[in-house]
Design a protein that fits this description.
Length: 415
Amino acid sequence: MKRPKITDVRATTIALPLEAPLRHSNGAHWGRFVRTIVEVDTDIGVTGLGEMGGGGESAEAAFRALKSYLVGHDPFELEAMRFKITNPTASLYNNRTQLHAALEFACIDIVGKVLNIPAYDLLGGKLRDTIPFASYLFFRLPNQENGQGEVRTADQLVEHALALKKQHGFQAHKLKGGVFPPDYELEAFHALAHAVGSDPVRYDPNGALSVEDAIRFGRGIENLKNDYFEDPTWGLNGMRRVRANVKIPLATNTVVINFEQLAANILNPAVDVILLDTTFWGGIRPCIKAAGVCETFQLGISVHSSGELGVQLASMLHMGAVIPNLVFTADAHYHHLMDDIILGGPMKYQDGAIQVPTGPGLGVELDRDKLGQYADYYKSTGGYPYDRDPARPGWFSLVPNTRWADPADSRPVKY
């Protein structure tokens, strides 16, 4: 077998419409996701696919700048690529973790295609055929095109959650909070938990609450069927204080996202459940390594979502398939998307789960027409400031936050 060598790296930024703008503690997704699709070419005609959040000229330029590191590299040599791109001391000056993740996806895709096996067989073999997901819920602004999709009140939240449960079969439910005053969101979360009956729930204000508010909120939901309490406050020590005062496991995807932080958390526990993100951790393989550490120390894990399209979703599915200690449903923004850029269209939920792709590599291929369509859409719409909320001009968040959105404000928003 001829070992392939990388010949080119190509990046295409796309924007893909959402059902409605998604609000969060730091701002909003303004009615679309902006993602960068990466294609890694080889001298044997095999191309691998990667994906990264964000995009535009800066992301495309960053990948172009790495071509000199990668042309001639053997995509089987993943450890060598890791140190080429993200040497830990060099990365103090050029943090490339998320760039490396997209390149790692693509190299795993190439290797799987060359060997004609799915990625999960490169990663230890799958333990499950499907990955169950939670109904990732957001407070949402109305869609600017048709005025539909708003989620602002408890009634709207419950209606939306039950509609998603009926449509996709979700059996667990996560609310992204940190938008409205904590007491308002506490009431809404209780309404959600009671509406979904025996299904477990989880609440995530993205670290926006003070330690004291987080403790008060946590105590206020202790009687619910919680999977965990995700990032209620910022920082390892803040999380330790909450953990000492609330009888719910704490989870994070913000304060334990690398091995140094994982070691610190094991030596002085602040978090019980580590949410592994194939982008934030720098690839599929680092997540699997971290899951092994968590297995050793009996920390819980789950699969985190950072706004994926089909390529990154495939990376999440393959990762979830091989990890033995995955007991929580995964997160995915995927059901908020109006379309996808992979052949066959968006992957389907069945009873709240998505089947792990079985084709070679990641098991997904680009739909060139869709890629072109949404690249053009990006060029016409541009990016958006993730850390700003179109409903609150001039606003920016504090940590801990004290400047909440007004839940009575239903004025139309232009974005």
